Amino acid sequence: MPLKNIEQPEVITVGKSTRLRKYDGKYEKLLKGYQDPYVYQNSEGIFDDDKKPDLNYVKGMCEYLDKAGELYFIEVEYNGRFISVGDVTIKAENPPISIWDAKYRGIGLGTEVMRAVICRLKILGYKKVTGSTVYKWNIPSKKMHERLGFVVTGENENEWFYDLDL
Ligand SMILES: CC(C)(COP(=O)(O)OP(=O)(O)OC[C@H]1O[C@@H](n2cnc3c(N)ncnc32)[C@H](O)[C@@H]1OP(=O)(O)O)[C@@H](O)C(=O)NCCC(=O)NCCS
């Protein structure tokens, strides 16, 4: 959905070989990634393997995120073409990010993409990111948010809540 009535770009260039590409309705691309236990435990807080995300789950999630903000595939260049390796939604309240494939995690991609999210939110005129929610067991996400300047505003048993002044 356009944020502030400004059209969502087809592509946002993040780095030399990284870009965000506007979600095109192909929710099935998320299925393999969201069926990785690491992703559903850290992103969805699901630990019961019987409840792991199915096609209907990723469809509902994409429909919601596409309405709530600007939903993109995270794409990296591989053998001369771009492949989708994750998803991110640009919105000022709890912008979610997920890198589906383990080999693209822990190499700085999440931090690089979140910098592009912050930049886009500033361009759109937002002054603050609120309510970013991180499960307490998700150390890479905690570190990423803190490295980017997010500050803890609250917690419950399982989650940290973060805000960022833009
Ligand atoms: C959370 C996530 C987006 C972070 O992106 P990433 O590309 O893996 O993270 P980065 O490589 O940019 O690293 C971010 C920080 O975590 C640290 N880190 C990365 N992997 C780590 C690991 N396995 N163990 C401990 N620290 C780790 C990095 O050193 C870095 O910290 P620093 O800046 O203090 O050095 C990504 O791991 C992911 O998609 N995870 C699964 C889904 C998910 O958890 N989504 C977020 C829900 S809030």
Explain this structure to me?
The chain has 166 residues and is of the alpha+beta class. It has a domain at 11-126: Gcn5-related N-acetyltransferase (GNAT) (Aminopeptidase), CATH 3.40.630.30. The protein is 30% helix and 31% strand. It contains 5 helices and 8 strands, in the order E-E-H-H-H-E-E-E-H-E-H-E-E. Strands 1-2-3-4-5 form a 5-stranded antiparallel sheet. Strand 4 and strand 5 (97-99) form a beta hairpin. The longest helix is centred in the C-terminal third of the chain and has 15 residues, at 109-123. The radius of gyration is 15 Å and the shape is globular. It binds coenzyme A (COA). Coenzyme A binds at residues 39, 42-43, 97-99, 105-111, 134, 138-141, 143-144, 147. Coenzyme A (COA) binds next to helix 2, strand 5, helix 4 and helix 5.
